[in-house]
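Fold this sequence, please.
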Amino acid sequence: MTRIVALALAAALVPSAALAEPCPGSPQALGTARVIEVDVKTTPRVGRKHFPTTLPLRAKELVLTFDDGPWPGTTPRVLDALKRECVRATFFLLGRNAEANAGLARRTLAEGHSIGHHTYSHPELNRMPLDKAEAEIDRGIAADEFAVYGHRRTDPVMPFFRFPGFAATQPLLDRLSDRGIVVFGADVWASDWLPMSPEQQLDVIMARIEQAGRGIVLFHDTKQQTAAMLPAFLRALKQRGYRIVHVVPAGIRGALN
């Protein structure tokens, strides 16, 4: 019953059409152009920096993703910026941060974003025995699920996962695939783990996006420079004709039938 309730909550926040609705009260906002569903059968691993293929995106289409949150000093600013522009993203939560900031985790879902998972404490999983690495993944999923949906489980409502530091191993990739969990890499990133000003970061990420042309973009919603840069970044995307795609799990509505 608790899983059905969680699925109902998540499904209610997924747009009912492939094309997103206009941004209320802000016709000049960037918005979310369309929604795509993914599952492990068709897209088990995505992001060309780490895997052979990525999401089926058209020219100038981007998927925005954020790692390591939620964090009280920065995640609210990131969510505020996305809300102003009616942009939906995917947040890969760190279990210990979700535990400590459950209200922010719930807000992220309530504002229509997808929830992915990023372990409990951000270790390099390729340096751990397989059983301990999977236990770390499961601990993170359980913490995230409890924070967001109020039920501790290792079968996530939204089966998305990103390896910390992209430190995957083939046995772990195979195990996640067997569990129906899509693994996200990235196509372009802002290098926001390096110290730089918001202006410098904007120049870096826009240059990389222009070179890539489309793809999964990686940020960290725990970084002050990212939170400060995001409003200008979203405006720049609008000015240059980029479109935002929101990724959701395939069958999330069908699970309620």
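The chain is about 40% helix and 15% strand. Residues 2-256 form a domain with the TIM Barrel fold (CATH 3.20.20.370).
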